[in-house]
Amino acid sequence: MQTIQLGKTDLIVSRICFGCWQLSPKFWGEVPLGPWREAIKKALDVGVNFIDTADAYGDGYAESSLGDFLAKEGLRDRFVIATKFYWNFEREKRYPDTSHDYIIRECEASLKRLKTDRIDLYQIHAWDPLIRPDEVAAAFGQLKKQGKVRWFGVSNWNADQIRMGLEHFDIECLQPRYSLLTREIEERELPLCLGKRIGVIAFSSLYRGLLTGKYPRDHKFTDTRADLPLFQGKAFQRMMDAMDDLKPFAEKHGLTLPQLAIRWILTHPALSCAIVGIKTAEHIETIAPAGDAILPSTDWWDIADIIETAEEEAKKAD
Ligand SMILES: NC(=O)c1ccc[n+]([C@@H]2O[C@H](COP(=O)([O-])OP(=O)(O)OC[C@H]3O[C@@H](n4cnc5c(N)ncnc54)[C@H](OP(=O)(O)O)[C@@H]3O)[C@@H](O)[C@H]2O)c1
Fold this sequence. Notes:
By secondary structure, the chain is of the alpha/beta class. It has helices at about 25-30, 35-45, 60-75, 100-115, 135-145, 160-165, 190-195, 235-250, 255-265, 280-285, 295-315, and strands at about 5, 10-15, 15-20, 50, 80-85, 85-90, 95, 120-125, 150-155, 175, 200, 275.
């Protein structure tokens, strides 16, 4: 498994990052913890040293599950841990909160749940229209000085928002959505990050599993995917046809389809890592080979064309 320096930080991370959103029952149903814990152990065997979570995943459940297991197994120092704040879930209806006091309070809460004395990468989960950048900067400065956070990042911010943030505090990493089916950031955000040496760790790069091509044609999704158009009816059939069309590319490079989808994003020069949503040891073990080498550019463009055409047709299909 290749490793990479994350932006300008001193963090050396595997190009595959273990994503923990799957421990959010509201979105993914009840994911059994036994196999999930096995997956954490397996991650180390296959060279994955980077974990992404968030306070909001299961309202603290994902962070607590991770913290308890790492503490019990004495594994905290083997991983680089990234987490996020933004959703204030202290009252029943959650809302975005990037105020100074909330950041300080929520960081303490995350440290407690994660059973650690430091967060390696602390990310603002999304853009808050009420953000007060000088307040964020003051909170970040305090947390860094106290050694509670090593580096800061943002998620789901566009290029203008990143530029605004950079005038007030250091942003070492962007966590955007990026996959063969979601390429909007190629225009502005990826060039900005490449130019400023901001690390990029992409999420939903398997398009929540669709780009694995692994589902039977009559599969019915019952979790967060049940409402997404490409997971339904004729659109789903068209996308599965496209996955069949990608098989020769996967075979040519000795890869599976999920590995091909991940290697495709990691071929972009701005990309540091792919965060993959993991439930089982098999998931992490079989995706790990995607973190080695990159694709030739001819294949990169041909693969992109196949998915672009399929998506256009899928959208018109139903
Ligand atoms: N910052 C943000 O706003 C944000 C938003 C979303 C996600 N994230 C982060 O990014 C991570 C990944 O994103 P995601 O969960 O949306 O989607 P994803 O990684 O595109 O898809 C996850 C799904 O892919 C399938 N999968 C994973 N590994 C596989 C393998 N080796 N072989 C076959 N199938 C495999 C599993 O599907 P099945 O369940 O069907 O087996 C899994 O549930 C999250 O866990 C989270 O850490 C961040």
